[in-house]
């Protein structure tokens, strides 16, 4: 008992002191002539700040330390939150990639360290303002991951819009694309998410507006058509007035601009000949097959489940059931298909299961033979052969055994005819006895079942809510789980961030354009969700934003920790809401 109390006290101590010193920059990448704001933020009262080494930067001002307080009232209780911010104004001395080391601050006697942050500095183009043409203020690009592929191979096509900083656009309209020779799977994107890129010394805001995974359907010299986007850009119109104090006032005119990407040529090669037997069109770099049955011993007319599961990447989503040879005395039903495939950044992946229900009609020992399967690996340019194991099925004669042999069927028919008078006499009794028997049985069964269900429902209410909340969390974080399994570090944190923002937007019916950390606080307070949960939710989002700057040795550990925390926070928020 003492051990349990000590363990709970330790957990409480850890949770009560879960402060982190966050580090943020307002521009990354940045130019050599740009001013950069560097901030260290902790949600507590901090002191004894130890700054990082900033030898690669001119310190224009700082460090400036500020402490802010906010109050919230929930259920008549007042909660105070303190935030300490230490800020610098910097300018890079030269171009290059630089690491800003950890800083630290003391909170309640304990020293808290920040993560390091990698900052990319590029050379500025001093003539960019004068030399940049109006049409270069906004442009679009189409980026493809491959341009030389095999039939059935997948690749990605991403379209982005580049907007020079200081330029605004309104009311964008994207035209649909028809692909000839390709199957398209769309990747969901968040058009509110922006990145900063520097091109020839000019900073741009970059927004991804189309992301497709394409599967080639035929060979030849094909092409990806141009993407067309129409935008409205505000420009200066006629002079309205020339105020002596405020200066000249001009009318704002919206002008339409049509932006087009370049069409991309794709060379699609035929698959190598000869194509082997048991090839069903799958092109993949990694593919496996597994079979399973729910039983190997049964009686005639009983059912057996036979599942064949394919797992891998590539065009697995296009795999359809194919001919599998089962013993001739087995009745075979059309398979049930369970499709758990997903669309990734460059291809589809996941697993697909075909479940066959088999009913043996004759006793004996049967073999369900191994399934042979070939797929094509475009990296090695070779066909790969995989197979499953054999299953030995022992079938005994059942009580309701009816032979499939014709002579036996005729004999049974004659026997049935000879005994007809006995059956007729018994039918009179059955006509009133069977309904009465089943009615009494049903009443007895319900009298036991209903009280049990009601008591069980009362006991399990909280546990049921917890299970439902856990299911919601697992469903939301499915793509992040896949990224973790594949050690896809960059995409992992992006998926966690997307999942949490998506969960918040759906749960509280918030428009994506209004998503912010302030909105989280607003809606959590409205729904009486504790400030502790608010802080944890926002903290996980912040971890995702800056995780890519952590040392590579800590990455996998950070991924596992973040996934568990994301699951837990969704479960806690769901449970909190269901208690209201």
Describe this structure in words.
- By secondary structure, the chain is of the alpha+beta class.
- It has four domains: 16-122, Immunoglobulin-like, CATH 2.60.40.10; 128-269, Immunoglobulin-like, CATH 2.60.40; 288-409, Immunoglobulin-like, CATH 2.60.40; 469-578.
- 29% of the residues lie in helices and 40% in strands.
- The chain is built from nine helices and 32 strands.
- Strands 11, 13, 15, 16 and 17 form a five-stranded antiparallel beta sheet that branches.
- Strand 30 and strand 31 form a beta hairpin.
- The longest helix has 57 residues, at 420-476.
- It is globular.
**Which overall shape is indicated by the principal axes computed on the Cα atoms?**
globular
What's the gyration radius in Å? 33 Å
The portion of residues forming beta strands comes to 35-45%
CATH fold name of the largest domain: Immunoglobulin-like
CATH architecture label of the largest domain: Sandwich
**Average pLDDT metric:** 78
Give me the secondary-structure category. Answer: alpha+beta
Helix content: 25-40%
Number of domains: 4
N-to-C CA distance: 33 Å
Work out the helix count.
9
Helix/strand layout:
Layout: H1 2-16, E1 22-25, E2 30-31, E3 36-42, E4 47-50, E5 57-74, E6 77-92, E7 96-100, E8 104-107, E9 110-113, E10 117-122, H2 128-131, E11 138-144, E12 148-150, E13 154-164, E14 170-174, E15 182-186, E16 195-199, E17 202-216, E18 220-224, E19 228-243, E20 247-260, E21 264-269, E22 279-283, E23 287-293, E24 297-299, E25 304-313, E26 330-332, E27 336-343, E28 348-360, E29 364-368, E30 372-377, E31 382-387, E32 391-396, H3 406-418, H4 420-476, H5 478-485, H6 489-508, H7 517-526, H8 531-546, H9 555-578
Helix pairs in contact: 4-9, 5-6, 6-8, 6-9, 7-8, 8-9
């Amino acid at each position: 008992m003492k051990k349990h109390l000590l363990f709970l006290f330790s957990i409480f101590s850890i949770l009560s002191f879960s402060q982190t010193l966050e580090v943020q920059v307002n521009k990354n990448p940045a130019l050599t002539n740009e001013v950069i704001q560097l901030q260290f933020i902790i949600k507590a009262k901090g002191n004894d700040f130890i700054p990082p080494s900033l030898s690669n930067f001119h310190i224009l001002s700082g460090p400036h330390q500020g402490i802010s307080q906010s109050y919230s009232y929930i259920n008549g209780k007042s909660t105070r939150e303190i935030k300490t911010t230490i800020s610098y104004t910097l300018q890079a001395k030269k171009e290059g990639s630089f690491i800003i080391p950890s800083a630290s601050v003391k909170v309640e006697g304990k020293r808290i360290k920040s993560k390091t942050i990698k900052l990319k500095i590029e050379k500025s183009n001093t003539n960019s303002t004068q030399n940049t043409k109006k049409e270069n203020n906004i442009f679009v690009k189409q980026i493809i991951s491959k341009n030389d592929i095999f039939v059935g191979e997948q690749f990605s096509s991403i379209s982005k819009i580049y907007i020079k900083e200081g330029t605004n656009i309104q009311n964008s309209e994207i035209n649909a694309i028809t692909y000839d020779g390709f199957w398209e799977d769309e990747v969901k994107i968040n058009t509110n998410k922006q990145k900063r890129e520097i091109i020839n010394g000019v900073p741009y805001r970059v927004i991804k507006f189309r992301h497709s995974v394409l599967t080639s359907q035929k060979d030849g010299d094909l092409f990806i058509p141009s993407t067309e986007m129409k935008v409205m850009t505000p420009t200066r119109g006629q002079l309205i007035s020339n105020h002596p104090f405020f200066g000249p006032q001009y009318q704002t005119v919206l002008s339409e601009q049509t932006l087009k990407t370049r069409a991309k040529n794709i060379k699609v090669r035929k698959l190598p000949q000869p194509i082997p037997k048991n090839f069903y069109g799958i092109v993949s770099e990694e593919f496996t097959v597994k079979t399973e049955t729910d039983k190997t011993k049964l009686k005639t007319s009983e059912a057996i489940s036979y599942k064949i599961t394919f797992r891998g990447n590539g065009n697995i989503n296009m795999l359809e059931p194919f001919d599998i040879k089962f013993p001739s005395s087995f009745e075979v039903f059309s398979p049930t298909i369970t499709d758990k495939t997903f669309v990734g950044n460059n291809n589809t992946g996941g697993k697909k299961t075909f479940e066959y229900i088999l009913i043996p009609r004759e006793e004996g020992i049967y073999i369900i033979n191994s399934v042979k399967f070939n797929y094509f690996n475009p990296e090695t340019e070779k066909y790969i052969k995989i197979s499953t194991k054999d299953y030995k099925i022992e079938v005994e004669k059942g009580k309701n055994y009816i032979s499939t042999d014709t002579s036996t069927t005729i004999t049974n028919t004659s026997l049935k005819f000879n005994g007809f008078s006995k059956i007729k006499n018994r039918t009179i009794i059955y006509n009133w006895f069977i309904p009465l028997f089943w009615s009494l049985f049903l009443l007895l069964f319900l009298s036991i079942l209903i009280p049990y269900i009601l008591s069980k429902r009362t006991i399990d209410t909280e546990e049921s809510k917890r299970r439902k909340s856990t299911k919601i969390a697992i469903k939301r974080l499915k793509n992040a789980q896949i990224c973790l399994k594949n050690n896809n570090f960059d995409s992992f944190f992006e998926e966690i961030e997307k999942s949490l923002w998506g969960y918040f937007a759906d749960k509280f019916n918030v428009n994506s354009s209004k998503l912010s950390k302030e909105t989280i606080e607003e809606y959590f307070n409205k729904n009486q969700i504790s400030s502790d949960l608010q802080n944890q939710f926002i903290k996980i989002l912040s971890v995702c934003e800056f995780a890519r700057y952590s040392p590579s040795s800590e990455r996998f550990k950070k991924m596992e920790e973040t996934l568990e925390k994301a699951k837990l926070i969704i479960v806690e928020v769901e449970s909190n809401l269901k208690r209201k």
